[in-house]
Structures are given as structure tokens and as C-alpha cells.
Input
Amino acid sequence: MTVDRENYNYVDMLALESIIKVLDDEYGVGSNFERIIEGRPSVKDIISIYKLPLPLLGYISSRITHIISGKKVSYIVNMILNYTNVCVVGCKFCAFYRKPFSRDVYKYSIDEVVKNVVETWKKYKIRQVLIQGGVDPSIPLEYYEEIFRRIKSETKNEVAIHGLSVVEVYWIAKTNRMSIAEVINRLVEAGLDSLPGAGAEVLSDRVRKLISPLKPSTSIWINVMDTAMKLGVPISATMMYGHLETLEERAHHLLSLLELQRKRKLIMAFIAWNFEPGRTELEKTIPYPAGGSELLRNIAISRIVFRHEIPWIQAGWLTAGERLAQVSLTYGANDWGGTLYGEKVLPATGLSLPLLVRSRIENIIRSAGFIPFERDNWYRPVSN
Ligand code: SF4
Output
């Protein structure tokens, strides 16, 4: 299913005059909201609606989503392959990584990665593998190329490769003394289909210095994604909230993504997830994860700000859990995400994950009053 309506007039379509009046009379933010819904948001406008009551945000965001995709909610049968936990970046919010030469490091060989993907494809008919790892500068570019080529040939091109975060691409370029464009071109040539949005966290250099000082800066993150899209590679975008960021920084983050989307139009989806402090360095400062209402609030705000321009907003069941993710479908989310077979990053924080199969996901979506459809890597419907 594609979202093909170009000219949205949300004020007419949602009969929003009455909502704007309520927002103005009761909260004094009618004009802020009007600017956002007309596609002219400012940081101040976004902050003003962050403070609105959650049920109101849910109502508005679900109405917008209904215009975009009706009652349809997509999901994908996929797996995650975390090829190594070795990482020299050492983010303070990450429980997954290990320093090189630690006792419990692992690194899959090319054969192990390919075998794992091919077996999962045969067992579950996955349509996508999300490949991400830590940053291990000793891994050559050829490792990824060989993996991508073999996955494509051994799954008869049935498995799309959604792989490597900005930080991995950046380090590959750095250690191989290549440009970002050269690295992306080589990876695409080998079979890369799209880039996941991981590594954005919150696009603020102040925050990055506090939670992941060795990660590439905000401008590098944007530049890598911009380069990928310029080369025709679609991406997804993310935001990890609930740590040291301010509302203003969240608003800037959303605006940066919107600007990027208006320039390249290849951001397929947005995923907001909350920081999980378990077993991380940041746990000493932030011992508890943001609550469920924060997830719903961020999903609703992202839908209102991105409207149809970033058509798919993910429910984020991985960190939210199935039940809250189900509720998020009434707060602007219209994509469930994937089955995520093989995920290792969240279990590292101490959370356990359910095994989600097609029928279980479809049941969750249906029982929330929506119509599930299975999609591919590019959000197109597929049938079995
Ligand atoms: S989030 Fe990624 S880059 Fe940061 S420490 Fe974990 S694996 Fe490394």
C-alpha cells in the first residue's frame, strides 16, 4: 500500500476548527497547532503540543493516521542479526556492547551469519534481515560485501537487507579511508537495500557528548543519511528518548528529520523508542525507563509533526512490549514493526522478548480494531 495523497488539508478533512478552538480556549496553543498541521512547525510549536493532555493527542494523531492509511496496520516478518558485540564506541546507554578482548565478546564468521539468515528464511519465510553490530574496526568492508552477496544469492533474492547504522557506515569509511558515498555504493552493489535509523538517539551534540561521546556528531549523522538517500537508498529514522534530552532537543530532532525528508523523500518510517537503563552505564543517573505515557506521547507528536510526509510510524513493541505497542496504534502508529527473530540488544538489558509469529501479530492488530497486512522492506503489501 502506498500513501499517495499529495494535497492534504487536515483542517478540512478532520473538521479541526473545533479542535483548534478548544486548543486555543483551554490551552492557548491553537495557532501553534494550526501551524504544525499546515506543515509549518517551529520548535516552539512542537514544545507547546508536547504538553497537551494525552487523550487529546491520541484523538488528533489517530484521526490524521486514519486519513493516511485508514484502518490498515502493516508488519513485516523479519530477523535481526547482531553480528558482533565488539564495539569501540561504548555508548553509556548501551548494555549490548563489549570492549575488544573482553571475555564475553562474540563475532560471527561470514558462514555463521549466512547460515543463520538462510535457516531463518527457510523456517519463517522472512522478508528482511536487519543487520547491525557494534563497531569493530578490525572487520574489513569485504566481510559485509561477502555476507550481503551470499544472503541475496542463497535466499534467491527474497530477503531484503536493511543494514548497518550510521555509526557503522561511518567507521567503515574511516578505517578504509573511503568516502561515505563510496562505502554506500559498494554495499549497495553487494546487496544492501536500505539503512536503519539507529544511532540517531537525539540529534543534539550536547546530548551526544553526554550519552555517546565517541559517536559521530549530529551533522555527520544527517550527512550520512542524506548521502544514502541521494544515492537512492531509502532509510528509516529513529529517536531514542527518555534520558538526558530536553523537550526542545526532541523538537529539534523531529524538525531535522522533517527537513531531511522534504529534501530527499526517502525516509520510509519513523520509530521512537524509550531508553532502557538496565545494565547500562547511564543506569546510575537514570535508573528507570520512561513510562508508557511517554511512548504514546512521542508517537502521537511524531505523527502530528510528520503527518503524511513520513507515512509509517512504528509501534515500537521491542521496548514498549506488546500491550503498550497495541495501544500505540490508537496514538498515530500504523506499522507494527517486525517479528525480529534473533534480537540480542534488548535481552542484554535484562528484558525478555516474546516470540512473535505472523498469527500472533495479526491477532494483536485485529483485536485493537485494525486490519493487519504483511509488508516487505519497502512497506509494500505482500501475500504468502
Ligand atoms: S549503541 Fe551501537 S555504537 Fe553504541 S555502544 Fe552500543 S553497539 Fe556500540
